[in-house]
Each structure stands twice: as structure tokens, then as C-alpha cells.
Amino acid sequence: MKDRGMTLVELMVTLVILLLMAGALFSVMSLYRTTYLKKVKIAETQIQLPLGVDLLRRDLQYAGFGLPWKFPENYEYTEATDAEASPYNDAPSDPPRPVVGDDGVGPNGSDYLVLKGSILGWSEASQKWGILSGGTSDNIAYPEPDIFTTEDYVLILEPVSQEFKAFPVAGNQLFCPGGGSFCPPSADETYLIYGLTASANFTRPFNRVDYYLDTDPNEVPARCAPGTGVLVRALLKADGTRNPVSVLECVADFQVFLWWDLDGDGTAETRTGLGEILDQAYDARFERDHLRLAEVFLVYHEGGPDPNFTYPRSTVDLGTYSFDLSGISNYQRYRWEALHFSVVFQNLR
Ligand SMILES: [Ca+2]
Ligand SMILES: [Ca+2]
């Protein structure tokens, strides 16, 4: 018998290796990626609808995904250049905090939220990730050998320490037999690879999105009440400027609260504003250990002014938070809506 196939022992060994490598972690990541892509697709076609807020929910869930926790000595990168965005930088050399922001710095006392993670980039490249095997074995063991193209720039992390091993590396440099310096030193070690962007001129080892209210008259539709704005999702570009895309129109207020497990008993017990991170100088490590949940409030109106309509109250009450409408002229003529939702950070700790 020439084609005897595998012996039982060989089969068992292979199975054990496959189980170790392709087990729970991979199926979770795969599920994760599929869900994310599905949601992005839905949102892309209806981005002007309140459903666009679902993007914010997704981004909160994925904050921290593919972020390096530790940099090599003397490693530096650049981040936001605009005055409104730069206070939330971790550049030039700190590990990126998954969540940053501040209270009341926007129109009507609204908040400014910043989220960081590889997958937040939305580019085809940033939706990719893989496993790089060391030694003389095949290069990318999962999900497929050639998932990255020569255009994709990637970040390589050591999976336990999340220490970053190589940046930037183009997809065609990932083939380990032949031994690049970014390859795991032995066959039984693996590194994680996260796609970042297809552009060779990127400047930081993560993607970043900023959420804030924009009240620039050129951006706000004419139907919106005076003083309201659009909630934008702004991807930070390589040059440090923001690329804003509207996700919700006629927004009067945007508030984010954070829930922390400060006593480490596994349950979040402390609610703070976003500004707590800056006030207390919490770093990336502290967020991973203690930050558990985000709570978001949005106040906006549907349609335009209606002379035959009277909104019955001067505040929008949302349980633990209320917004005073009386600062908005003619607020009674608009149909005010409120959104209140909570999101568990799935990529911290
Ligand atoms: Ca706030
Ligand atoms: Ca607790």
C-alpha cells in the first residue's frame, strides 16, 4: 500500500495541534468578523437613518480589537493634529487606550468620544486578521494562506503579551520560510496578524474613529432645529486629520457614560463621565483591567419643524439623564426622540 494515509498516531497528533490552534479562539474570532461585516454592510446602505447609530454600537463593541499593549523601545507614531481631536492622542509613544474622550466639550454640552482598534478602519484590509506560524511550517495558518495581499499593511502581535513585533509589514512579506525578523522564532510559536489599511503611507499601528456633534451649517440639513448638529463618525486619516461621515442628523445631545469594575469583583459598579479617563490619567492597561460597559444617550428630532405640532415637555428625560430643550429656539415645533443603549466592551481585559 503506497497511499497508506495517516496512522492513528499521526492523526491524533494532527488533531491535537489543529484543536489547539484552530479551537475556541478561532471560531470566536471568525463569528465575530462575520457579524461585523454583516452589520457594516447594513449600515453602509442606510447611513443617514437612525440605524447609523448601530455603527456606534458596533464600534464600541470592537474597541480594543487588535491593539498593541506594548511597544518596542523608542517606538514612536503620530496621531490627530486638529485641536479638537489631539487631546485624546496616545502618540507619540504610549500604548493606545481603546476608549478616550471628554465631557461637555461639544455643542450643547455634548461629549466627544474616541475609539481605537484595528478593525474600526472599515477598509477591506482592516477586516482581515490571521495567524502566523513560525519555524519552517506554512506561513499564515489561518484563515487562509493568501488572505493578505501585497497592498495590505498589517500589525503583528505576540498573542500573550500583545507586544508588537513588526510594523509596517506588507502582506507579501509574511511568508516565514526564509525567516524574516517578524517570524515566530520556532514552529510551536504563533503570532497574530491584524490588517490595518491598504495604504503604504499610514502612520500609526491602529485605526481610530472619533464621534462628535458637528454643527457646521454646511453639514447640518436645513430641516434641523437651530442649534442641533449631525453626529459624525470620523476616521482618522494618515495625515492626522479627520474624515467625518454623518450617522445621525438633527442631534441636540450626545452623552457617553462609562461603567467600571474598580474593585475587581467582576461586576461593574462605578459610573463616570467620559472625562474620567483624562481626569484620572487612566492608561491602556487600566482600561483593560477595569472598563466594562458604555452607556450612550442621544437626543434628536425626526422630520422638520411642524407649526401644528407641540412637543409636550421642555426636557427629554431618560431616567438617569435628562436634556433641557429650552435652549433651542422653537423646540416645541419638533418631534424629539431619544435613544439610550448600553454596550459591553468585548475586547477589553
Ligand atoms: Ca458627558
Ligand atoms: Ca465591581
TrEMBL record:
Claim: Amino-acid biosynthesis is one of the keywords in the record: no
Residues that span the membrane, as ranges: 12-32
Natural source organism: Thermosulfurimonas marina
PROSITE patterns: PROKAR_NTER_METHYL (PS00409)
Record's keyword terms, sorted: Membrane, Transmembrane, Transmembrane helix
Pfam families on file: N_methyl
InterPro entries: N_methyl_site
Protein name: Prepilin-type N-terminal cleavage/methylation domain-containing protein
Region (Disordered): 84-103
